[in-house]
Design a protein that fits this description.
Blueprint (H helix, E strand, L loop, with lengths): L32 H6 L1 E7 L5 E2 L4 E7 L5 E2 L3 E7 L8 E8 L6 E7 L9 E7 L5 E2 L8 E7 L5 E2 L14 E2 L3 E5 L2 E4 L31 E4 L9 H5 L2 E3 L12 E2 L4 E4 L2 E8 L7 E7 L7 E9 L12 E9 L10 E8 L10 E12 L2 E10 L5 E9 L4 E5 L2 E6 L10 E8 L11 E14 L5 H13 L4 E3 L5
Length: 478
Amino acid sequence: MSGTPRTSRGLLTALAVCTAAGITGAALIATPASAAADNLSVQYRTSASGATADQSEPWLEISNSGSTTVPLSDLTLRYYFKSDGPSVSYRFACSWAVKGCANITGTIGTLANPTATADRYLEIGFTSGAGSLAPGQNTGDMQLRFYRADWQTLTQSDDYSFGAAQTSYADWNKVTLQRAGALVWGTAPAGNDPTTPPTDPPTTPPTTPPSDPNAPALFDDFSYTTSSDPAVRQHGWTVKSGQGGPGVAGATWSPADVTFSSSIMNLRLTTDGTAAGTRETELQTTAQKFKFGTYAARVKFDDTPTGGPDGDHVNQTFFNFTPLNAPMDPNYGEQDFEYLPNGGWGEPSSIMYATSWETYNPDPWNAVNTHTESRASYDGWHDLQITIDSTAITYYIDGQVFASHGEPYLPETPQFIDFNHWLIDFGGQSSSTPRSYDEQVDYVYFVKDQVLTPAQVSAKVAGYRTAGTAFTDTVPGS
């Protein structure tokens, strides 16, 4: 399906409204003396203000009012909360950030000295890719969230750092900020200075998970001649033809525009601004047999046409899905990479979406999904990866985490693997001059029930190529 219009993050709404906020402006004035030296401050707002919610949504900014530039990788934030029980675990996600979600880390830790309003904390850090904070600048939005791993409703009205009335950004001293280990902003719950080691580390020291060399896997180097090459179907691929969604009504899915050269597949989209003159492309696995495991592909996105005017609302994708057999079908699921080089769905310019779907109703429209987006150009080659296990869906771009989504979006049934390239609408460009866009694919790889790191995926692909293996599929049918 890939490409149903996006829904807002407001799908997950608070279940009740908290009426006991009571944080005064005077309470925000108390700031450690060290903060004056660094002139760093933290601003906070909540996007989920209820006493209970499906997920807590602390949105944060860091401001630099000093005279020196501060590397963001030197900084660490802590948001303090009271868990719903000693055995309850939580997961972090970044929905969107000016600095890029791939450059923001989040871990859940346990306080050494629990209080009535805090026994856990969410710790936020930055990679070197986040860059620096110059004098007079702030980080811009960091739209963060955390939720119970069992996806049950959580209580946040008793959380130390939560402020129900903070629906717009303001200084907030109940979130702490450290620079190189020293506290520079905020006040922690009593007895829990953030420099004090917690009783439980926020994460187990990272290790590379072992991979099973005999795990069922699919690898295809796309060493075909044409889309009508008999090996394409023999290797379990279907090339879409005829008409039908997604995209503009009346457009044609063109097998002739799925081409191969030097082990590179090209999916070409061509349009002249009319439905009759629009040709789209799609390649999908014949078998619906992929669920938990690691999905990966190297894809080249295309921002500009090969000729003619630019600006069409094209959609270039790599995704996995189970078909929707009825409105709100509980067996439907989908995990998408969708790149819109010229915008679309109300977006004015380049945007990358990672979207995880539970289900939807096409008419009247009702979607149960969540997404993470990056408003930036992704023109050129990129390594895309999706890992799925029984707890999380994690999206990677070029080896960096782009998004992480949990329940209720995990797939319930086996899925297809798909690449398609299509036109959302004619809103971007209505010229009658023919123009074409290319989406190229170097390889696709899937390994069943194995959550691999990007480095492990690269090693597996290199191993196939060193051995001269252009295609293998040992994944059993569903």
